[in-house]
Amino acid sequence: MALTRDAVVTTALELVDAEGLDAVTMRTLARRAGVTASTLYWHIRDKDELREALADRIMAPALAKLSSLETTAGEREWLFAASVVLRDALRAHRDGARIVAEARDSFARSEFSDAAMTALVARGVALANARIRVLAAERFTVGYVLEEQAPVPSRAGPDLSELERRIPTVIRAIREYFAAGHTPDDVFTDTLRSVVGLGEG
């Protein structure tokens, strides 16, 4: 069967999920696809184009799910739900947020932004304000997932007693938050509510 661009992107995403973005080179991708590098270049010119194609693939499910939010009336509630959809799409793949953050020319990423702005304008938000609000929510979400997907340090962190001495208010706030039954996912949704203007979680 002839190699296609879609198959190349699928193979690349499998490699990302297995070994991380840093392991993906045109040479390793060609080897995994069972073709020569010159054959690969017929479909993907370079790593920048590959990253954009990966970002498009990662963003596609998020873009597709926006239509299911049409019945969400309020602009704040809509933007909140869209950001949750975006986070789910980024977290579905290893280094998903990094790939999307670095793929500035991804059409799917831009189409997601366009659809979000259109939805806010349809709900009465001025275009200039809609753009700023969408940028804030998107960049918060991508940045949040970047931290979630960052490599775990190999060395041990500071001793708890040192943390309690140096940042006592932070430690107390963390303990109170999780003692109330909150989960790590709640941290995202509660902070997102603040970003989109839905108040405290």
TrEMBL record:
DNA-binding region: 25-44
GO biological process: negative regulation of DNA-templated transcription; response to antibiotic
The keyword Glycosyltransferase is assigned to this record: no
Domain HTH tetR-type: 2-62
Pfam families: TetR_C_1, TetR_N
Alphabetized UniProt keyword annotations: DNA-binding, Repressor, Transcription, Transcription regulation
Molecular function GO labels: DNA-binding transcription factor activity; transcription cis-regulatory region binding
Gene3D superfamilies: Homeodomain-like, Tetracycline Repressor, domain 2
Transmembrane regions: none
Protein name (database record): TetR family transcriptional regulator
Annotated organism of origin: Microbacterium protaetiae
